[in-house]
Every structure is written in C-alpha cells, then in structure tokens.
C-alpha cells in the first residue's frame, strides 16, 4: 500500500473525516470524535516501521514509558515499533519533529505536560502551537513530581526551606526552559520569596547526576526516574507537588500541606500523533493504546515506573483534558509574565 492509499475507506470518506478534523476553532481534535476506528494495519505501510518519539534522552521516565508501549504495539501489529530519542529545548525538539511529520500515523509522540502544554507556552518564539500541532490519542497515566535534594544536605522539607530562606537563594535543575521542573522550581522560589537560579539540562539523567554531585540544590523530578538514586542514598526526597500524597511515596508530604498551594503540578503521560491526522487513524491508535493498557504485563511495567494507569481511556475526554490544561497554564504563565520566561 502506498503512502497516499487508505485501504478500507474510500476517498470521499477520507476527505469528509479530514475536513471534520480541522473544522474546529479552538482545538481541532475536539471534533470528529465519532468516526469509526479501523485497524492500524489497514493504514500502516508494509515494510515501514512505527516511531514513538521521546523529547528526552534514553534512561529518563518518559523514555521508559515509551519503550513499554513500543513493545506492546509491536506485539499487536506484528511489526517493528522503535523509540527515537530527540532531547533538548525542554522536549520541544522531539515534539516539533512529530508536529510536522507526515500525518500518516507512522510517527507518534510520547508527550507530557512539559512537551504539550508548558514548553510551547513559555518559549519565545513559540516552537509550535500546542492546540493545532498535535492530534491527542489518549492518556497513558499519571505520575507525581518529587522535590529532591542531594544527600548530605537538608533531610526534611522544613529544613530545606529554612536553609534557602537564610541564604536568600537556591539553584534548581530542570530538563529545559518550559519543562515542568522549570515551572515548579520557579513557583517554589516565588512562594518561599527567595531568588531561584534556574539550571537547565538536556534531560533528567544529566540533571540528576549533577544534583547527586551537589552542583545544584534541588530539582523536581518525575517519580519514575528517581528510584535508583534514592536506593543508593545519593538523593533525598522531600515532598511531592501533586494535590494528594503519592501511593508510591506515602511518607512524603505534599507542598500544599505546608501552605505552598501554588506549587502544584499533576504529572501525566499521553500519546499524540502529528497534526491533522485523520480521525480513523487516531481512533485506531486509541484502540491499540486502550488494548495495551489492559494487559497485566504493561500495567506492571508502568507501575514499576511509578505510573498509575489513567482511569479514563476516552479519546474525546483526553482531548478535552489537554484543552483545559492549555487554558489553565496559559493563564498561569501570563500571570507570572516575563519573570518566568527569563528564569
């Protein structure tokens, strides 16, 4: 089958669904949700692999989730599904690659709040439009962001806050401008009323190494990326940035518990296709994602990465959730103004 052929539906249906997909004003993916799904094998080109792009380096939490799904999809489709790491610029290098990729369903993005909401809102010029640049496929799961400090320093959240207040400053690592770690570090410095020094890295593995070495004071990190550092007693977890305590780290307080309500960010992972992918293709990938997330082995592997499977697998609900996230964080970024973009 050639790139331009769609084997199970005729040209008129294809044009109708494509037109419906792009008819919306705010978020084009919120329309055309009722098109019937087709098996992915009916639009995938023989001999062409599927690529899941990760906007970070190998070894990070996002990379781990992508590899779990790649293995599951490969088994479902009986074809090669590879993970391609394109780190840098807060995940936007990889995300932009997917945004402008051919809309034939062969290129997917393992996205999160940084790549698909925060980074494009906080970077100037905007690397891509978070609404129009992607087709949301489905939510994979939720995870917590954990505030970490090097071993040998403060052993409690209160001790760390008091130390930073005395110094009047603290440095915090992130995975780049516009990442969740960048936003949370800035919000924490603002809430504690100290100067925050932002130190961006190309990915969490590099940042964690420097954090463990004491070259930066703190970092908010996705929970799935920190286990080995905590077990080796190189890093100390102090708190979580979610609304409720993490079931994986129940001993850690939330920042809300100590009066820092504004330092909050619910982490999530999701699957996206490139812009203007026809709804039957998006529906097919949603069906494959749903199937994967029902498999006990996949659930076990994701839980090992400290990811709780999403309670709702509706593609429409996920698209609406992304739209709400963009609306919410657009307001927050606007309120913080140039101080956040310069941090």
UniProtKB/TrEMBL annotation:
GO terms for molecular function: lyase activity. Keywords: Lyase. Pfam families: TctC. Belongs to the UPF0065 (bug) family. This is Argininosuccinate lyase. The lineage of its organism: Bacteria, Pseudomonadati, Pseudomonadota, Betaproteobacteria, Burkholderiales.
